[in-house]
Design brief:
single chain, 253 residues, Rossmann fold, 7-stranded mixed sheet, 9 helices, 22% strand, globular
Length: 253
Amino acid sequence: MQKVTFKNRNWDTAANLHLPDNFDKTQNYPAIVCVHPGGSVKEQTAGLYASSLANKGFIALAYDASFQGESGGEPRYLEDPTTRVEDIRYAVDYLTTLNFVDKSRIGLLGICAGGGYAANAALKERRIKAVATVSGVNIGRAFREVNFLETLEAVSSQRTAEANGAESIITNWTPKSAEEAKQAGLSDMDMLEAIDYYRTPRGEYFTSNNKLLLSSMANLIVFDAFHLAEVLLTQPLLIIVGDKVGSFGGKNG
């Protein structure tokens, strides 16, 4: 694995480039961009998949989303779907500069919200030849399931407050522990298993600090990862799901 950076507008994106065993820089390899979930970083799920894909002979790139982890961009902890999709396109840009990458064989693998972002990127990015999602989530649809109008009102009020000198509000992606989740009345499998991975030594990483800029929520609520997919998503698509049905996304099917 090599730590690399690539330019993303006027800031740097931090990434880990995973290389196959017996890597030969004179050869051409297929490459896969691994897109992490919301609030995650390249050392967690995306990095695990990237390492496994490299063991299968792929060049695999896992990176930190803009405004998060070790990547640049302001304001910090912003989760902006438009930028998350553009992050993917900049990652593809970077791969095309590597002589050992076969530019005609670049694909995406996205996990959770990263799956929705990956599918959305493929709608307009024809250099992406195939897409796979693992427990892919349309994050906009998910955020529209609970009190979304109240959330938009809160975000709008906060923008007014910030325009008049107030500090930004940073919230959390998940409760800090399973106990805290239960105290808040959150007992669904999806939330508890996320906490079990991201908030415990099993999967926690110091740059994945569970922080989300409150104003992000308006961007998330109006986003639809699959808008026009029936017209524009013509690349091969692999959808991987688990064998247990959680409550996430349950209200709308």
